[in-house]
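Feature request, filed as a ticket because there's no other form

It would be nice if the structure record came with a short human-readable summary line next to the tokens. Right now we just get the raw output. Example of a typical job, pasted below so the devs can see what we mean:
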Amino acid sequence: MNEVSKFRLYLMRATYLLMLAGLAITVWPGVVRHALSVPLAEGVVSSLLAAVAVLAAVGLRYPLRMLPLLLFELLWKSIWLLAFALPLWRAGQMDAGTRESVFACLMGIVILPIAIPWRHVFASYFAGAAVLSRRSQTSMLKARTCDSPEGKKKRTAAESPGTARLLHSYQTLSGAKLGRRDPSAALSVPRAGGVTMWIRGLPWLVQSGST
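Raw output as currently delivered:
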């Protein structure tokens, strides 16, 4: 994962602080004190922005962990400007409230791309996801190979020495004891038996060497 410079971290904290201060002044008073006749859409938007302010406060302590909040802010502001504000501007129907919202969103469109560490975003959300996908595919292929009949035979042969391998090992060691002094044959114990079989064969090799 790419490291983020201290300057970028402080810039992210400054962005979180700006979001927190602006929403605390404009949104939270209406959340704390409001009339019962507030329209449904206005109440939903106020609650959503109040939650954004709380998460921005968390971002002051953990700027990278709350990075999705900055991405969310950039996305919804861009969507609103393109899908709603731009058609109103083309039709010449922008009122004072819409102009104020456009100005606030444009400020976010300018500040957020500067504050967001894009290299960290691509490394964490795109490159990291590709690596995890490749690892999961590799593990799935290994599991399918092990579950196949051939894989089970190979796994069984690798994990536990069979009777034929034990007999072959004893025949090899017996041949070395009876006088066939072929070091390569005496030491050609199958690897499946592991260190245990090799240690068990050491006394026979010593006895064969002494005779």
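Something like this underneath would help us a lot:
The longest helix spans residues 118-147.
Confidence is low (pLDDT under 50) at residues 183-192.
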